[in-house]
Give the backbone structure.
Amino acid sequence: MTALMNRSATAPKETKAHRAILRVLEEDHAPLAETELRSRLLQRGVRVNKTTIYRQLAGLKERGAVKEVDFGDGKKRFESNDGEHHHHLVCTKCKSVDEVQLPGELVRLEKAISKNKKFKILDHALEFFGLCVNCK
Amino acid sequence: MTALMNRSATAPKETKAHRAILRVLEEDHAPLAETELRSRLLQRGVRVNKTTIYRQLAGLKERGAVKEVDFGDGKKRFESNDGEHHHHLVCTKCKSVDEVQLPGELVRLEKAISKNKKFKILDHALEFFGLCVNCK
DNA sequence: CATCATAATGCAACTCAGTTGCAATGTCAA
DNA sequence: TTGACATTGCAACTGAGTTGCATTATGATG
Ligand SMILES: [Mn+2]
Ligand SMILES: [Mn+2]
Ligand SMILES: [Zn+2]
Ligand SMILES: [Zn+2]
């Protein structure tokens, strides 16, 4: 490619960090913060700089491979974006995270809101906090 | 009071900062971050240190006068806790915030979830993002 | 009103998550 | 094999939020 080329849809390069991060997220299947992801990677013998992690996650996110999740603890969390759209049950005691799907429910709600509030809903954030079966 | 006294339900002292902060939150009626609150206070001629603001908000929160809200932008936001429980329609373009109530809806959802997931829901976070009537 | 215990404040220094500039390294198409 | 350019690591930085401590203000008590 002789310069002056295709800038869009740049395919990600197959690097060690890229592969490892994606694999951890696919296997662990929970929203992980940078430090968590980093130590998971270390456990597998892959040492990655935090800057690289953030940059990879940003790329994975805009490519739709990963979703950002917020538990309100001031940390960015990311999870694999394979399965169906769902929400989380976060145990405030042991920090475990379970998933829950609300098929149709939110869609219906959003339609109603969009209509009578004249607000075009593009996204939502819904997470539940409480005690898991082991902690309550 | 001769020391060794009532430690609970400490009534807050009537200070300039306390009054001003509460008044701004009651009037502006939107979830404000520290910097926003701080400049609103300045506009009214009240200069308050950010440490004081955070400490006041913490006190107001545990006293139930204020609620913490998270828009996922890495900032703690607080709003007056007078009205009914509600959620927000946040315009991602102009940053305006509207409110929306979902009477019963969430309660019903939570009951169903609590039952078949054996998870005791104590709280939830639900905010909507999109385009307000002026921006869409 | 005067006293004074103690709550509230301001400031500086700190922590911690996340970002940026830049030089060094790695990837992959040609 | 080569070279353009994407990715990485590191150090320095930003910005939100917190903490220790000395100073000031509140309000209960007498
Ligand atoms: Mn999930
Ligand atoms: Mn509100
Ligand atoms: Zn638990
Ligand atoms: Zn708008």
Remarks:
- Residues 1-8 of chain B have pLDDT under 50 and may be disordered.
- The pocket of zinc ion (ligand 3) is lined by residues A 91, 93-94, 96, 131-132, 134-135 (CB under 6 Å).
- Residues 16-28 of chain B form the longest helix (13 residues).
- The helical segments of chain B are 16-28, 34-43, 50-62, 105-117.
